[in-house]
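dumping this here so i dont lose it
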C-alpha cells in the first residue's frame, strides 16, 4: 500500500511549509517593525512631556521662596510686629494718661469755678 509520498511530493510539501514559515516570519517582522515605530513615537511624546514637566518644576522652584529665606522673613516680620505692638501699647498708655490729666484739670477748674460762684 502506497501512501502517495514520494521524494518529489515530500520536497514540495517541505518547500510549501518553509514558504509559509517565511511568510509568517515576514509578517511577524513587519508587525514588530511597526510596533517599534509606535513605541518610538510614544517614547518621544513621553520625553517631550517629561521635559515640559521638568521645565514647569524648574519655573516653580525659581518663583518659590526657599525655606531658609521664609523662616528669616517670618522671624523679622514677627519681630517688627512685636516692636510695633509695644510702641502702640506705649502710645495708648500715654494717650490714656493725657486724657486723665486733662480730665483732672477740667474737674479742678470746675471745682474752682463752683467755689468762686458760691463765694460771690
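and the seq i came up w/
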Amino acid at each position: 500500500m502506497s501512501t502517495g509520498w514520494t521524494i518529489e511530493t515530500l520536497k514540495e510539501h517541505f518547500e510549501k511549509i518553509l514558504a509559509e514559515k517565511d511568510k509568517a516570519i515576514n509578517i511577524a517582522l513587519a508587525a514588530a517593525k511597526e510596533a517599534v515605530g509606535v513605541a518610538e513615537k510614544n517614547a518621544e511624546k513621553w520625553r517631550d512631556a517629561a521635559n515640559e514637566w521638568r521645565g514647569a518644576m524648574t519655573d516653580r522652584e525659581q518663583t518659590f521662596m526657599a525655606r531658609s529665606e521664609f523662616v528669616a522673613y517670618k522671624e523679622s516680620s514677627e519681630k517688627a510686629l512685636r516692636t510695633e505692638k509695644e510702641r502702640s501699647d506705649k502710645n495708648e498708655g500715654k494717650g490714656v494718661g493725657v486724657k486723665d490729666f486733662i480730665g483732672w484739670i477740667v474737674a479742678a477748674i470746675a471745682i474752682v469755678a463752683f467755689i468762686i460762684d458760691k463765694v460771690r
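The mean pLDDT is 87.
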